[in-house]
Amino acid sequence: MKKRTPWKLIPLKSVPIFILLLLSLGGTQAFSFSPTVVLGGRLDQVFSPQSAALWGDMYGFGSWRTTLGSEAYAVFNADSSFSLPLDQQAASVDQHSLSAQVGLSLPRGSLLLSSETFFSIKDPLYGLTMLPDWRGRYGIALDQKSTKKAYVGYSGSYLYQEKGTEDRLSQSTAIGFI
After folding, report:
1. Which of 8, 50, 128, 169 is deepest in the core (most CB within 10 A)?
2. Do the bridges between strand 168-177 and strand 33-47 make them parallel or antiparallel, or are there none, so unpaired?
């Protein structure tokens, strides 16, 4: 049986809608919303040169944003999806993510801390897979009149794959102007 990669399982007609949804959710910087929960499911007929398959998907998304006093905010998100082949013996696919972000306005700048973890409990190729990443950025106002800021940042990630040949740790720092 041929193993399928996750990107071949997404129906081509769903990709633009999914990308627009991710961009609209990820780019939103609203500081306070009531909690949001979305649950859903769908059936997809997937065609490829090798075969056709009927897949059932279940997904969920939860988000909570709040202010922390007048100068800070916090955001927590979680989402999960499960895909199961309904007409053949292919392996099911699961994908999950958890994220948190805290922003704090300071007298001469701002601090942004965020973390996100992507994971799959039963990845068909690698078994348990986890990819946590973390970021921090401190922006410093150059003077009282200018909107320009200097910043210093740090980010990192760690990739763990149960059946992979090696784990991977990545780290970076950045200094620049906004």
Report:
1. 128
2. unpaired
Please give the model's pTM, rounded to 2 decimal places: 0.68
3-state secondary structure of 90: coil
The Cα–Cα gap between 38 and 92 comes to 22
Confidence of residue 4 (pLDDT cuts 50, 70, 90): very low
The count of structural domains within the chain is: 1
Range of the domain at 168: 6-177
Which three-class secondary structure state does DSSP give residue 24?
helix
Inside any domain, residue 171: yes
Mean predicted confidence (pLDDT) in 85-104: 86
User: Do the domain assignments include residue 76?
Assistant: yes
Distances in whole angstroms, Cα of residue 80 to Cα of each of 58, 84, 144, 173: 8, 14, 44, 30
The stretch 148-171 carries a mean pLDDT of 91
Interatomic CA distance for residues 95 and 120, integer angstroms: 5
Q: What is the DSSP letter of 13?
A: G
